[in-house]
Q: What sequence folds into this?
């Protein structure tokens, strides 16, 4: 590489770093983004304090059962190790500092790897254009930006590095085979889905063998076998563990496929058999493997490309589900496909086609994954810049003989350069997924509720848990330092769905008691945004809960009676009125609405309590209503109401709020107990009664005396 090219590559890397570090200017106190990132942080901190041990079981998730952590540990251990190295330089916040910047750094290294791939397959010009296009590609920036400590940044770097080393292996030299094997093992130690990416190896071997048979020329597969052998040896020490056995078994199967391909190719060449013998033989073997592992393979295919998570996990939905077709992303993918078509043409027409064939397989695999699940756009965003650079360079060459067509090439250049940049400002300046309402609420939860044990040594069962929708579980564990029923591993998601959609308190309470949940946290977006996902996990029809339509150009959301009967609405919008065991204890500062004629806080925290029982006497033809005026921790006035129908001259009303107040929730006075006669709509005397906090927490009975005053009819 000459100085000019080195300077241009360095510029691309610096541009990549600048873009990926830019979100630090907009984050403020909330540094980290995403959902899984917060569990990576928990695991990184644990590893930092117990280095080199990492967290393999966590009693703070899937409470009270806990959960075995099946994430391969390389990313978390690497961040913890780097934090140890820099702690003497930057002090106690080294873990968060390293976690915040590690992904942008890996993104910068990825630019160099992509440059090297494009240079190996094509030339320096294509490589430099590829590097700059990757540097500004927004779909790569999303996964490698500041405050995103997720294994995906290391995963895609290692996958790209494997492609590069395989290209060098194809060229020749067993040293590259050994390096490729090390990279394969590192990928297996980074991501449980590594076998998906490793399909590139048998795919190349089989297609290359078919080309060899059609051309009557053998291909040397020994370097590929050396690569796989090295990877097998490196993963063997943990090959039978729950978190690595799938990758280990996949590497063994891939090795067997490559070896079988080699044997069939040699026999076919020796016996002068037709090329169809190879794919037919491998197809027969594939049928046997599918027959033996049909259920696992079927579930994997449905999950990856069959839309198995549609309506449940947004990022795991197929690309074109809930995606606007008129977006820069779709145009970007069209350019991707055009570039792949040019690559296919050159692969077929080229005499030296091995490198192009491997790149083409990578491009097709990445595109298939992206169509299956939109989250895999970060895989396409790595090979995509190479395809677009190829398309651009070929367009320029094409116009040299046709000066009149230079305008077309210029337009194509402008599209390819400016199209990705259109999404960059929004991505760079976007708010973190976790809002300040959540941060403040979880800090309050950590400081104001009883501390649970074993947070730093989560191997024994803590005292209680928090019920939440699974999206928020990792936030609660990391910031709130409390166990959760459901988290972002989809543990407890069915219990969460059943709880929030329960239409009677007794059923909801059974779920809560089974999971020993003392607190419940809700978010307004669970009603206005996430309701479809909550319904989908139970197979319920969202339209039976909520009607969404357009009126005068505006989207109108109308809650139906079925939704109004759910625990979700009763908690978040009704502040637990008509409930016996749940009470509001905290609400966040941001409000939206009005909903049902009033504003609603974005995040609310509730406590499940035994509740005090108010017991008294009344005629059987009346309804007895208990009313308590309260104010929230922010001073917002609200009213708790519950009622009972007397039987044999007596009644009992269980209430969750005390008149002494708790957690910053204050009562304006005693409970007002009013008898109402439905036949005449008449209001009787009101009885005032105080309920202590101890009454509520111990489920005591509070006996009523005579009425203290009268309330006129409304």
A:
């Amino acid at each position: 590489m000459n100085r000019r090219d080195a300077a241009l590559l360095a510029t691309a890397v610096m541009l990549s770093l600048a873009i990926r570090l830019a979100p630090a200017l907009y984050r403020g106190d909330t540094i980290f983004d995403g959902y899984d990132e917060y569990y990576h942080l928990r695991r990184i901190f644990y590893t930092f304090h117990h280095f080199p041990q990492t967290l393999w079981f966590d009693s703070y998730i899937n409470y009270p059962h806990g959960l075995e952590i099946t994430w391969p540990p390389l990313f978390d251990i690497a961040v913890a190790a780097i934090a140890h190295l820099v702690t003497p330089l930057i002090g106690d916040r080294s873990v968060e500092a390293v976690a915040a910047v590690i992904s942008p750094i890996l993104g910068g290294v990825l630019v160099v790897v992509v440059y090297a791939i494009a240079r190996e397959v094509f030339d320096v010009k294509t490589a430099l254009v590829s590097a700059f296009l990757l540097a500004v590609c927004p779909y790569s920036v999303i996964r490698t930006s500041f405050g995103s400590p997720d294994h995906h940044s290391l995963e895609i770097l290692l996958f790209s590095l494997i492609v590069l080393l395989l290209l060098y292996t194809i060229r020749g030299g067993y040293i590259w085979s050994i390096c490729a094997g090390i990279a394969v093992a590192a990928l297996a130690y980074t991501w449980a889905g590594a076998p998906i990416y490793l399909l590139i190896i048998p795919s190349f071997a089989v297609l290359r063998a078919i080309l060899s048979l059609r051309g009557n020329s053998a291909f040397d597969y020994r370097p590929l076998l050396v690569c796989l052998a090295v990877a097998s040896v490196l993963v063997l020490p943990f090959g039978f563990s729950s978190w690595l056995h799938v990758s280990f078994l996949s590497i063994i199967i891939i090795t067997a496929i490559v070896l079988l391909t080699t044997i069939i190719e040699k026999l076919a060449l020796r016996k002068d058999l037709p090329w169809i013998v190879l794919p037919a033989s491998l197809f027969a073997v594939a049928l046997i493997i599918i027959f033996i592992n049909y259920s696992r393979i079927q579930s994997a295919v449905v999950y990856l490309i069959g839309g198995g998570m549609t309506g449940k996990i947004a990022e795991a939905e197929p690309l074109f589900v809930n995606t606007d077709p008129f977006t820069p992303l779709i145009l970007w993918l069209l350019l991707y496909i055009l570039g792949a078509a040019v690559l296919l043409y050159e692969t077929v027409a080229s005499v030296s086609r091995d490198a192009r064939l491997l790149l083409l397989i990578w491009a097709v695999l990445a595109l298939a994954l992206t169509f299956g699940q939109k989250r895999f756009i970060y895989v396409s965003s790595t090979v995509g810049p190479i395809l677009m650079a190829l398309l651009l360079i070929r367009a320029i060459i094409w116009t040299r003989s046709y000066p009149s067509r230079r305008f077309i090439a210029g337009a194509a250049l402008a599209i390819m350069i400016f199209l990705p940049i259109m999404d960059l400002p929004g991505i760079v300046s976007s708010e973190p997924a976790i809002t300040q309402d959540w941060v403040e609420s979880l800090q309050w939860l950590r400081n104001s509720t009883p501390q649970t044990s074993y947070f730093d040594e989560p191997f024994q069962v803590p005292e209680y848990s928090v019920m939440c929708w699974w999206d928020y579980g990792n936030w609660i564990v990391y910031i709130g330092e409390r166990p959760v029923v459901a988290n972002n591993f989809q543990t407890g998601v069915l219990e969460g769905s059943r709880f929030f959609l329960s239409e009677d308190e007794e059923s909801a309470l059974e779920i809560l008691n089974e999971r020993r949940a003392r607190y419940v946290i809700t978010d307004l977006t669970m009603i206005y945004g996430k309701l479809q996902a909550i319904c989908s996990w139970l197979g319920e029809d969202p339209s039976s809960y909520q009607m969404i339509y357009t009126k005068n150009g505006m989207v109108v959301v109308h809650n139906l009676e079925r939704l109004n009967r759910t625990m979700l609405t009763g908690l978040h919008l009704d502040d637990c009125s008509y409930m016996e065991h749940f009470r509001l204890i905290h609400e966040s500062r941001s409000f939206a609405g009005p909903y049902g004629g009033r504003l609603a806080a974005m995040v609310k925290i509730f406590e499940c309590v035994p509740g005090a029982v108010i017991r008294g006497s009344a005629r059987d033809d009346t309804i007895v209503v208990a009313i308590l005026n309260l104010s929230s921790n922010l001073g917002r006035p609200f009213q708790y109401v519950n009622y009972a129908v007397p039987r044999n001259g007596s009644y009992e009303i269980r209430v969750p709020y005390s008149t002494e107040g708790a957690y910053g929730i204050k009562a304006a006075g005693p409970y007002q107990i009013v008898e109402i006669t439905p036949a005449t709509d008449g209001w009787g005397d009101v009885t005032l009664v105080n309920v202590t906090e101890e009454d509520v927490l111990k489920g005591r009975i509070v006996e009523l005396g005579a009425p203290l005053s009268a309330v006129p009819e409304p």
